[in-house]
Amino acid sequence: MEPLCRDEPGREACWAALLDRVDQLEPSLRALLSETDRRGRLATAAGHLCRAWPDAATRPPLYGCLVAVKDIIRVDGLLTRAGSTLPPELFAGPEASCVTALRRAGAVVLAKSVTTEFAHAEPGPTRNPRALGRTPGGSSSGSAAAVAAGYCPLALGTQTIGSVIRPAAFCGVVGFKPTRGRVAGDGVIPFSPSVDTVGWLGPDVASVVLAAACLCQEWRPPGAGDKPVLVIPRGPYLAQAEPAARAVLGCQLAALTSAGYRVCETDALLDIEAVNERHRLLVAGEMARVHAAWFTTHAARYRPRTAALVRQGQSVSTAALAAARRGSEALDLELRAALAAVGGNAWVCPAACGPAPAGLEGTGDPVMNLPWSHAGWPVVTVPGGLVDGLPVGLQLAAPPGTDEALLGWAAGIETWLGQLAGAGPQERSI
To answer: Is position 3 within any domain?
Structure first.
């Protein structure tokens, strides 16, 4: 796929149109952090692009692509506030490797995007561009909203529980969380270092794949391949989804079966309540340790739910943390074995409990994403229809290290699921 605005006149026209769109929608959407002279900064960046790659034939794959960056990821020249009111100098440091990699591929940072406070539960002001009275999800709220609103064709986020996949589903875009450790995590303000993973969002799978080739270590372009065998994790995990979400899942899988996909189901995650509790203990304990010095000095500046998680984590022992990390490894092995036992390639399930909830006080329940984050598996969500006019996504999870195959499968599935909403993949691609 050709990158956005590869030729100079096209780039300038695209950038101007996108910035006009930001100016028009941002007062109500509030997906991006404010900036004194964004147009001036981008004009300077445009000059750097021209000088760095004057020959159009040798330009890199993301040349001219505007990208939003979640505000827990450091970007040279822009403050990192992590959705908090703490002094930003606490979070200063070298630019994140993932941002530098995108720049080397020709991308330009459009803006920092709104995050929940420290990537946990206290939401920012961002609204869902599909329905302004509803949450865009979190914690990568602004990143999902920016892509869905057409501000940019790529946005960086992070996922510790469900912070890329759930907002992507709520906003009707594609979200991808790679295998844990596949993308360097330096330059990212930690939440729970054992499970934090840089991910990204785009309008379609092709855009996400193009970014993956620039971000993932030792990326191998996926081949066409056969259709995967999709496995439904039957039992209490799936029961966490709302009835409407399970009904849509049935429609999605019926469409894929008609298209020649083999779909089966098996009992899995029967101890999901214990898995959920173990993951919550892990992230609370690790967050308390990350924030130990900051919280001692600035506790009064933390919002209530964030402060409560830090205080909860302070009571988690080192032994309990070690046990939770071992549980993560055990879950990985358990999921691999259950998938292999039925000859499956990927688990398939709703990307969220249902469509985006009304109101902006929360960001939705991440339980449908939690086990895959706990086990460190790569996960992708593709738009898969509507519930009451609101987008829902289909989530695919595959064993660690199969990121390339997973995105290859998602590209095929995207085509068939697009018919459920009466359209193919969206047009705003890289």
So the answer is: no
Would residue 248 count as lying in a domain? Answer: yes
Q: Which tokens in the block code for residue 378?
A: 């790569």
Segment 389-430, tens digit of pLDDT? 999 999 999 999 999 999 999 999 999 998 775 443 333 334
Nearest to 406 by CA among 270, 279, 216: 216
User: What DSSP string describes 119-172?
Assistant: GSSS--S--BTTBTTB---SSSHHHHHHHHTTS-SEEEEEESSSTTHHHHHHHT
Structurally, the chain folds into a number of domains equal to: 1
Per the annotation, the verdict on 163 as an active-site residue is yes
Q: Where are the alpha helices (DSSP H) in 216-266?
A: 236-239, 243-258
Catalytic member of 70, 112, 194, 429? 70
- Active-site residue 139, yes or no? yes
Tokens 């096209």 belong to residue: 10
| Active-site position among 140, 141, 143, 163 | 163
Q: Is 258 a catalytic residue?
A: no
* CA distances from residue 205 to 80, 105, 333, 360, 371 in whole angstroms, order as listed: 29, 18, 28, 28, 23
**Residue 25 main-chain phi, psi, to 5 deg:** -95, -25
Nearest Cα neighbor of 335 from 291, 379, 296, 388 is 379
Q: Which of 113, 139, 328, 429 is catalytic?
A: 139
| CA–CA dist 127, 148 (Å, integer) | 11
CATH for 16? 3.90.1300.10
- Pairing verdict, β 379-387 and 174-177: antiparallel
Which pTM was predicted? 0.96
Contact 155, 201 (CB under 8 A): yes
Structural domain that includes position 360: 8-430
